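Protocol step 4 of 5: obtain the predicted structure for the target chain.
Materials: sequence only (see below). No template structures provided, no constraints applied. The aim of this step is simply to have a reference model before the mutagenesis design in step 5. Sequence pasted as it appears in the construct record:
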Amino acid sequence: MDRFTVATAAYPLDWFDDWAAYEAKMRTWVGEAAGQGAALLLFPEYGAMELASLAGAEVAGHETQALRAVAGYVERSNAVLSALAQEFQVTIVGGSAPVLAGDQMVNRAPVFGPSGDIAYQDKQIMTRFEREDWQICGGEPLQVFDTAVGKLGILTCYDSEFPLIGRALVEAGVEVLLVPSCTEGLDGYWRVRIGAMARALEGQCVSVMASLTGSRPEIYGVEENTGMGAVFGPPDAGFPDTGVIAEGVMNKPGWTYAQIDLNAVRAVRADGRVLNATHWGEQVGRDGKPGHISVK
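Step 4 output (structure tokens):
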């Protein structure tokens, strides 16, 4: 599939009194995007944290109990999203969740295919809050997802701010980078957005950013959230001059849609006005310790 529609979420966390309410919310969101012709749906980082509400207010508001509660619901939530991916024949990257991997907690984004396949990508580099407050660790290595809509890679929030990770995915054949994010303030949103746009520039590819939005003071760690959905490309032939293919409205919940043309990615990599992806290697040998010159 060389052309497809992506739906990327500005996603508000809710409070659920029962499991049926969660299932109904997922069905509404997936059904709406599929009804608009989206073949790929991206939910944000820590979108699964709303599941802590099912354990009650005391647990949801606790620093570590909320994480473990959510981890306990992941298998059930994966089953819901897998069934929806099959029913609506779409590829879904679900909201990431804390997951126990051995004796460590990782931040894991699940991937669901229209045929029922389930895979995942763990976040690589933790923010200070994740390290110091939640004690979440970097998980399993980067993956390339061969899907019905092409080769996808996931750079979870902070990961998008590190160019070598993005480059590894580009060199492995990824044409679309997915950036699910969770940022408290506008500064955090822009750090991730700038990272996502830079990775699209360097890799001459498309990057898709999803965000948590709104206030949920009852759930520890995701009390305040700022962002919107957006889709970026390289500001070059076949793409907008700004590099912004589509963007939502700040802090307004809902889907942002964009048409992705993989042939445009291949064309700009082969014969763009600049060739960032091809010329990346020319940095080698020029990235050593700089000399010092005194100019008085």
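Step 4 remarks: The first helix runs from residue 19 to 35. The first strand starts at residue 3 and ends at 12.
Proceed to step 5.
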